[in-house]
TrEMBL record:
Name this polypeptide is given: Cyclic nucleotide-binding domain-containing protein
A Pfam family recorded for this sequence: cNMP_binding
PANTHER family, per database record: POTASSIUM CHANNEL AKT1
GO molecular function term, any single one: voltage-gated potassium channel activity
Matching SMART domains: cNMP
Membrane spanning residue stretches: 59-80, 100-123, 130-152
Chain ranges of the Cyclic nucleotide-binding domain: 234-337
InterPro entries: cNMP-bd_dom, cNMP-bd_dom_sf, KAT/AKT, RmlC-like_jellyroll
Organism: Diploptera punctata
SUPFAM superfamilies named in the record: cAMP-binding domain-like, Voltage-gated potassium channels
Transmembrane helix keyword on record: yes
Keyword Transmembrane applies: yes
Record keywords, A-Z: Membrane, Transmembrane, Transmembrane helix
Amino acid sequence: MDIVTIPPIEVFGFFAPRKDWLYYIAILRINRLPRIFLLHEYFEERKSRLNINVFYMRLLSLILRCLLLVHTLTCIHVFLQCTIKQCDIPGITFKPGHRIHTYLYIMNTIMQTMTTTSFSITVGQNIRTLVYFTLLTIIGIMFSAVLIGEVYNTLVMATFSIGKYVVSVNKMKASIGNNNLSESLIKRLWINVVNFWNIQRGHHYPKMLAEAPSSLRQKVNTYLYEKHLRECHVFYHCDEDLLRQIAVTMKETLYLPGYPVVIEGDIDNSMYFIHSGEVKVIQQGKLIDQTVGILKAGDTFGLAQGLLDREPHFFTYYARTQAVIVRLTKYKWEHLLDFFPAAKDSIETEVSYLG
């Protein structure tokens, strides 16, 4: 495609009379038209990513495709009926300084033709123009059907998450009602439910992905979390295959501001990686609690607790802002070290320093 679209053929327009340069340059730039397919490939590639809002990407893609189609058909109509000095279009008195008016008039004509089932406008006496508008009407009918389908699919995508979320919330409310929880706890749970929707719009780690084959989950989790393992000195000398399998066992959790991640004295055999947001480190005192520090995205805490058996946490960690924390629990991955002796020796050395 680049061989066809990159050559600057429009430079030959400068060989035309000076007053006609813009007209011929515009015509000779027709070789740029196939690059529209690159835009299509871009949106298809973007929609396949995990870290984007698919709804807005589909909506933007739909709007741009409609605009490009109407613009392209408008330009073709201009080439068919307009010359340098005149336009054979009923209702238009062509003037050199009124090109935008001509363009908008033709665009309106194109849009009317594509949204009707017959010619409700005058299209001129030119036979090629009549053939063009006949084909345009057929294309318009098919395009309208495709457009309605795309709009419907986009709207369904926008409402699918909230519908599924409402079902989950109703199940939780039924469970709470059957277990007679206290009013204060119910209130906290409800605030958490509302905040989750306001923040994530129901886009959590997909259940189908959690149940997908191990090889697929390895690829996804490696893409999402492997950087945390690579930046942690405990795993510096570990093989690529080991890190990939460890990444499968990592679990992501969203914490709202003020929510505790770990309480001082907890024993959970887990280490934590801050994927995004900030975490406040608190040391509990007899009278007052003292803030020890603030951890940010990319930081790690609980290394000793995630490597040693039954090691309690020495501090309390609260989410200072909305924070996504990735948890790595020892018993879920330590058996893998039997297959990687070199990595096992390296990690055991790090454990000896911690102990």
